[in-house]
Amino acid sequence: YRFEAVHLFRPSMLMGKRNEARRGEAIVQSVMKLFSFLFIGSLRKYRPIAAIDVAKSMLAAAKSNDKGVFIESYEEMQSRLKGL
């Protein structure tokens, strides 16, 4: 198959509620949220992002007229969210 566009989403830590209780993950989410401001420059792609924001970004990408292959990390997903 030939696709006009392929978007690969690569979020770091997904933030949000889960059905299962995972104590370790909850701790890591808290720490990541607290210190995410330290992720600057090339580390910015490791910032945590809400799962709902990833979904919104995916929807925006699907509705776009982009052509080509795109690897979407934190920065690109945030950019797509601003366009909504």
Structure description:
By secondary structure, this protein is of the alpha/beta class. 42% of the residues lie in helices and 17% in strands. The strands form two sheets. It has a two-stranded parallel sheet. It has a two-stranded parallel ribbon with strand order 2-3. The chain is globular and about 45 Å long. The mean pLDDT is 92.
In short:
The protein has 84 residues and is α/β, with parallel strands linked by helices. The protein has helices at 23-35, 51-63, 74-82, and strands spanning 5-9, 14-15, 49-50, 68-72. The chain has a two-stranded parallel sheet. It has a two-stranded parallel sheet with strand order 2-3.
Give the SSE layout.
Layout: E1 5-9, E2 14-15, H1 23-35, E3 49-50, H2 51-63, E4 68-72, H3 74-82
Parallel strand pairs: 1-4, 2-3
Helix pairs in contact: 2-3
Average pLDDT, to the nearest integer? 92
Structural class determined from secondary elements: alpha/beta
Share of residues in strands: 15-25%
Strand order of the largest sheet: 1-4
Helix content percent band:
40-55%
Summarize the main sheet: 2 strands, parallel
Radius of gyration: 14 Å
Shape: globular
Number of strands: 4
Query: How do the SSEs run, as a string of H and E?
Result: EEHEHEH
Continuous helix count: 3
- Terminal residue distance: 30 Å
Could you name the ranges where pLDDT drops below 50 across 5 or more consecutive residues? Answer: none
